[in-house]
Design brief:
Shape: globular
Largest sheet: 6 strands, mixed
Strand order of the largest sheet: 2-10-9-4-5-6
Number of helices: 0
Distance between the termini: 40 Å
Radius of gyration: 13 Å
Length: 117
């Protein structure tokens, strides 16, 4: 059974940094285009960064210049390095395949990121 497990969230002050990780069980990780999504209270889930199986990356305007997505196929792990965090980055962050907005059965619990002074 494939599982996506996110970690690395927490409470950080504005301007701070966090590195999120997502470990994917199973052997499919290396062939999947992957994405980091987030959902803030009262808002729809949005894709903030994506990376192809070959390592090409794309970012939503909200994260350009501040977020860096990367992957380690040998470790079945996806990362999101976030710097210069803002209160509006507060959300639950999820990893999932970058396919059709995410594959339903792959949604995990996410990791909470709270940016507040």
């Amino acid at each position: 059974q494939v599982q996506f497990v996110e970690s690395g969230g927490g409470l950080v002050q504005p301007g701070g940094s966090l590195r999120l990780s997502c470990v994917v069980s199973g052997s499919i990780f290396s062939i999947l285009p992957m994405g980091w999504y987030r959902q803030a209270p009262g808002k729809q889930r949005e894709l903030v960064a994506s990376i192809s199986s070959g390592g090409s990356t794309n970012y939503a305007d909200s994260g350009k210049g501040r977020f860096t997505i990367s992957r380690d196929n040998a470790k079945n792990t996806l990362y999101l390095q976030m710097i210069s965090l803002k209160p509006e980055d507060t959300a639950v962050y999820y990893c999932n395949a970058d396919v059709g907005g995410g594959i339903k059965v792959y949604w995990g619990q996410g990791t909470q990121v709270t940016v507040s002074s």
